[in-house]
């Protein structure tokens, strides 16, 4: 805390004074202790045979030996005089954390010149004559010019302070550091190179973080085209880091700069796109810009160094180390395999990247949206036919998935049931798809309202697709044709990410979907992501995806809602559905509705999880029948606190009144009135689906009006909360949000609107105080959709 609160002008000398007592030689006993110190997490990182780089980002978790290169723009402040202390501190923390996990960390750092420049400028100002300062006046002193400082002198003055700062920071994490200064000759001379290798190996063996830099105080200027055959010369810290990484057989080189990664054209230009994965041979597709504000390298030098390291068996990631939003976790994110910066890989996948898939889907989706509604309906009907015609292929693939899931033994029974397909389920899917095909006739281009703004100036609000949808679903392959049909009907492009448990079934269903789309040349409008993409990485494609729809467990939905930065998420995190049995309930209706709500499909999000009983029903024949029915259906009851207080021998008490069991279990609680039931649901429910069973219409209407859940039912099972049962054909999910779509989301929920204004040379000035026109704002009859107009024309 003292260190980082110092004035920048006083920093170098103060830093030296502050940490001087800490710079001491370890005793023999301390050396021995440190030499054998092993982190508890050390065994989690296994040493691998060096020789080939990692093929996928996910494999970076296996990286044992890591070189972190800190560019000048990362280490220095914006004024290029002094270090960015906060940024440097967060980087040190990450390196120390990885070191303590049992990894071997090395740092190649810039910053000595900037640190020295700050120190020398301070000394020059202090050495100026006090008389000159007094005669010059305050303002003139402020603008006083300083001589240009020679870089080697700055490096000489800054090296000790830079190293002292690193040592002070790493000491806070009980991590020891060692400084290593190198020049080009240290790599070209075999003896010196062996000595360097031996030194670094010994430091790593003793769990010490080597901090390496070129000895800028004596290094000569780089010579152009001085690379030897198969060897990269040390021109800057990029080439130093690459040479060092290969020499030390490092698994990973992380090069931090002031840009997000490698772009296909200079960052900031209109068409610049960040490259997620760069492969050797892609250099011709890159247009390089100018180098950063500091340092002697540039992106071209970084790419050259990265490719050289990659050829030597070291994986490389180039990322931004200056962005305050990510600096605190950029290194650890890379090591965890997250999609950060540009990853260099020698193995090019056979299929397109997820970014390319998204772009293909968007382009084909625009064509899909422009089709006539009859053409979109024809695609959906053809897909429905394929589900029954090719059912043997689908069921064979599904059996493979089922066999693998059962043999693995880690999937719960509820998920196994979701994974399973049958001829009856396929027939039901086909019926639902044909309902969607009918709905597609009046979807895209429907006119919602017309207004005559002024004479010869008319405004229309029409329905249009949202854009690109990303639907992430777990072991539920029936979701794929449903969501595909809804996307086709609404003219949306679709990106699908299914659970690996249903990979074989999903592949066959997607092939059938693309076969149906090929009828009208829009095969690419629906894409199945089959690459090793993490869900969190997909949620970061905010410039390519317009809406995310998760279909799965409450944990999946919560994870996606947290991971989605800038992309709306449609869905619900939990399905805590209540059934309230009123004092005036019919016995027969209670037994039927409670049984169906809980036992028809316990894993569904619309299954009953809490049964609320009016107090007057306790110790009545109706209560006994409810308990007997639940016992017969093998439903485990968890007693709420009030219900438990009425019983001498109660079932297990509920750990929480806000639990989604997803199985043959439910919570039972007692309330005194309908109003208390509503209050309970508002407090513990998830705004999904809630039911009242009563013969009193007044009580029922109060319940339906007061409760603000997405679905509220009177004398009907909670299992009716479903797009197919509502007549929507299918649903992409059930939303508990309070804007856009709510409840089962079908075709309407996948549309948005745009405004179309038709004028005749009108300007806003025409309606100003001095203009000659007045607003009318007259509502006009809604005419047929734009698609219908195109047909009639």
TrEMBL record:
Location relative to the cell: Mitochondrion matrix
Q: Which gene encodes it?
A: ALDH18A1
Per its record, the protein catalyses: L-glutamate + ATP = L-glutamyl 5-phosphate + ADP; L-glutamate 5-semialdehyde + phosphate + NADP(+) = L-glutamyl 5-phosphate + NADPH + H(+)
> What do we know about how this protein assembles, alone or with others?
Can form homodimers/multimers.
Its main subcellular localisation, reduced to a broad class, is mitochondrion
Q: Which domain of life is it from?
A: Eukaryota
What Gene3D superfamilies has UniProt attached to this entry? Acetylglutamate kinase-like, Aldehyde Dehydrogenase, Chain A, domain 1, Aldehyde Dehydrogenase, Chain A, domain 2
Q: Would you tell me the Gene Ontology cellular component terms?
A: mitochondrial matrix
An example Gene Ontology biological process: L-proline biosynthetic process
Which lineage? Eukaryota, Metazoa, Chordata, Craniata, Vertebrata
What is the designated name of this protein?
Delta-1-pyrroline-5-carboxylate synthase
Q: Which UniProt keywords apply?
A: Amino-acid biosynthesis, ATP-binding, Kinase, Mitochondrion, Multifunctional enzyme, NADP, Nucleotide-binding, Oxidoreductase, Proline biosynthesis, Transferase
- Outline the extent of the Aspartate/glutamate/uridylate kinase domain: 64-320
Query: Sorted alphabetically, which Pfam families does this protein's record hold?
Result: AA_kinase (PF00696), Aldedh (PF00171)
Enzyme Commission number, as recorded: 2.7.2.11, 1.2.1.41
């Amino acid at each position: 805390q003292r260190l980082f609160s110092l004035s920048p002008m006083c920093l170098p000398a103060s830093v030296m004074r502050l940490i001087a007592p800490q710079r001491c030689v370890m005793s023999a006993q301390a050396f021995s202790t440190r030499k054998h110190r092993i982190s508890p997490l050390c065994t989690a990182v296994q040493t691998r045979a060096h020789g080939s780089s990692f093929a996928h980002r996910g494999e970076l978790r296996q990286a044992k030996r890591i070189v972190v290169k800190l560019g000048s723009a990362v280490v220095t402040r914006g004024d290029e005089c002094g270090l960015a202390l906060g940024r440097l501190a967060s980087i040190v923390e990450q390196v120390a954390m990885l070191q303590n996990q049992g990894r071997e960390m090395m740092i190649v750092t810039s910053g000595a010149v900037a640190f020295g420049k700050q120190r020398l400028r301070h000394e020059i100002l202090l050495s100026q004559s006090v008389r000159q300062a007094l005669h010059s006046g305050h303002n003139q002193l402020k603008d006083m010019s300083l001589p240009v400082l020679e870089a080697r002198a700055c490096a000489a003055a800054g090296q000790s302070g830079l190293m002292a700062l690193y040592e002070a920071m790493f000491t806070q994490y009980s991590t020891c550091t060692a400084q290593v200064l190198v020049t080009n000759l240290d790599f070209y001379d075999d003896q010196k190179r062996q000595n360097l290798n031996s030194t670094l190996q010994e430091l790593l063996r003793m769990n010490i973080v080597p901090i390496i830099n070129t000895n800028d105080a004596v290094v000569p200027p780089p010579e152009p085209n001085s690379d030897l055959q198969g060897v990269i010369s040390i021109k800057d810290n990029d080439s130093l880091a690459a040479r060092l990484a290969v020499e030390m057989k490092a698994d990973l080189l992380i090069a931090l700069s002031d840009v997000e990664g490698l772009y296909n054209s200079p960052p900031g230009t209109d068409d610049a796109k960040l490259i997620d994965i760069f492969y050797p041979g892609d250099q011709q597709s890159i247009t390089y810009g100018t180098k950063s504000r500091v340092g002697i390298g540039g992106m071209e030098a970084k790419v050259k160094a990265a490719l050289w390291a990659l050829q030597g068996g070291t994986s490389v990631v180039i990322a931004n180390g200056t962005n305050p939003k990510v600096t605190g976790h950029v290194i650890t994110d890379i090591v965890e395999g997250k999609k950060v910066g540009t990853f260099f890989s020698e193995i090019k996948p056979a299929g397109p990247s997820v970014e390319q898939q998204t772009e293909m889907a968007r382009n084909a989706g625009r064509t899909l949206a422009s089709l006539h509604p009859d053409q979109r309906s024809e695609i959906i009907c053809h897909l429905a036919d394929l589900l029954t015609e090719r059912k043997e292929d689908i069921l064979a693939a599904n059996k493979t998935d089922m066999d693998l899931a059962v043999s693995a033994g880690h999937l719960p029974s509820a998920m196994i049931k979701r994974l399973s397909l049958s001829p009856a389920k396929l027939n039901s899917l086909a019926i639902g798809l044909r309902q969607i095909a009918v709905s597609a006739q009046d979807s895209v281009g429907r006119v919602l309202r017309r207004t005559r703004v002024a004479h010869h100036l008319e405004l229309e609000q029409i329905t249009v697709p949202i854009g690109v949808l990303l639907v992430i679903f777990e072991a539920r392959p029936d979701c794929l044709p449903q969501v595909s049909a809804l996307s086709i009907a609404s003219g949306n492009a679709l990106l699908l990410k299914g659970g690996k448990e249903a990979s074989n079934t999903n592949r066959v269903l997607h092939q059938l979907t693309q076969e149906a789309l090929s009828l009208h040349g829009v095969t690419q409008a629906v894409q199945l992501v089959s690459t090793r993409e993490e869900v969190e990485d997909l949620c970061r494609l905010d410039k390519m995806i317009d809406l995310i729809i998760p279909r799965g467990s409450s944990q999946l939905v919560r994870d996606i809602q947290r991971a989605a930065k800038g992309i709306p998420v449609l869905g619900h995190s939990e399905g805590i559905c209540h059934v309230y049995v009123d004092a005036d309930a019919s016995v027969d209706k209670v037994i039927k509705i409670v049984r169906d709500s809980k036992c028809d499909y316990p894993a569904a999000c619309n299954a009953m999880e809490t049964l609320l009983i009016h107090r007057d029903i306790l110790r009545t024949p109706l209560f006994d029948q409810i308990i007997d029915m639940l016992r017969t259906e093998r439903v485990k009851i968890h007693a709420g606190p009030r219900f438990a207080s009425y019983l001498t021998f109660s079932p297990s008490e509920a750990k929480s009144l806000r639990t989604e069991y997803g199985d043959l279990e439910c919570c039972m609680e007692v309330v005194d009135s309908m109003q208390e039931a509503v209050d309970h649901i508002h407090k513990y429910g998830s705004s999904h689906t809630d039911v009242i069973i009563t013969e009193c219409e007044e009580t029922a209407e109060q319940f339906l009006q007061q409760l603000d859940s997405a679905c509220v039912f009177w004398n009907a099972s909670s299992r009716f909360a479903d797009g197919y049962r509502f007549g929507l054909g299918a649903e992409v999910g059930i939303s508990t949000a309070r804007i856009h779509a709510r409840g089962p989301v079908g075709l309407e929920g996948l549309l948005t609107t745009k405004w179309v204004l038709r004028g005749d040379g009108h300007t806003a000035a025409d309606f100003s105080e001095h203009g000659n026109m007045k607003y009318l704002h007259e509502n006009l009859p809604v005419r047929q959709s734009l698609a219908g107009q195109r047909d009639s024309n």
